[in-house]
Amino acid sequence: MEIRKSTIEDFNHILNLYEQAREFMKEHNNPTQWGNYYPEVSVIEEDIVNEKSYVCIDENKIVGTFMYAEEKEPTYATIVQGDWVNDNPYGVVHRIASSAQKRGVATFCLDWCYRKCKNLRIDTHKDNFPMQRLLKKNGFVLCGIIYLENGDERIAYQKADMLKI
User: Fold this and answer.
1) How far apart are CA 122 and CA 95, in angstroms?
2) What DSSP letter does each residue of 1-14 carry, written as one string?
3) From CA 144, how far away is CA 22, in angstroms rounded?
4) Is-above-0.70 flag for pTM?
5) Tens of pLDDT along 59-77?
6) Is residue 165 in some structural domain?
7) HEC states along 19-31?
8) Would you list the DSSP string of 88-106?
9) d(C-alpha 115, C-alpha 45), whole Å
10) Mean pLDDT score, 102-109
11) Please, which of 99, 109, 128, 151 could form a disulfide with 63 given CB 3.0 to 4.6 Å?
12) How many domains does the chain contain in total?
């Protein structure tokens, strides 16, 4: 597998992966995290234009997608019921989705992000147990609760290599 920046030509493949992810969430008792329309088309387009959207390729097929950036996430400024591991500059991962036909894609994507930045933050819905298990399996630590701009609650995780930051 390999990771590359998304292009506009990848758009329909990315939409398809997000549709699969929404169905997976619904089937696993998490129907509200992304609902029927998240991420919106405009969000996906913005990620691509701003060069924050990435795809995971396996055998010339797009099998995963995610947003990655090394920037401050405004909704991470306040965390409750816990604390971040550190306050150092960090990378943020959002909107990760993978094909059901290929195992290990999300782990591969998270590993790629961690190689880019040894201090990562990510969040997920309280009902997204598959993602919570994936994050714990990949060395992320539960840090507390953050709130999105619309007020929705998310569980916040961080993975940091304190020796290399």
Assistant:
1) 10
2) -EEEE--GGGHHHH
3) 24
4) yes
5) 999 999 999 999 999 999 9
6) no
7) HHHHHHHHHCCCC
8) S--EEEEEEEE-TTSTTHH
9) 25
10) 92
11) 99
12) 1
In a domain, 39, yes or no: yes
Q: How far is CA 55 from CA 6, 8, 67, 116, 142, in A?
A: 6, 11, 9, 15, 26
Inside any domain, residue 37: yes
Record the tokens describing residue 59, joined without a space. Answer: 């055998």
Taking alpha carbons only, the member of 155, 138, 135, 133 closest to residue 146 is 155
Residue 80 DSSP symbol: B
Q: Which domain covers residue 128, as residue numbers?
A: 2-160
pLDDT, tens digit (0-9, with 9 covering 90-100), for 75-100:
999 999 999 999 999 999 999 999 88
Would residue 58 count as lying in a domain?
Answer: yes
**Locus of tokens 């007020």:** 151
Residue 19: give its domain's CATH number. 3.40.630.30
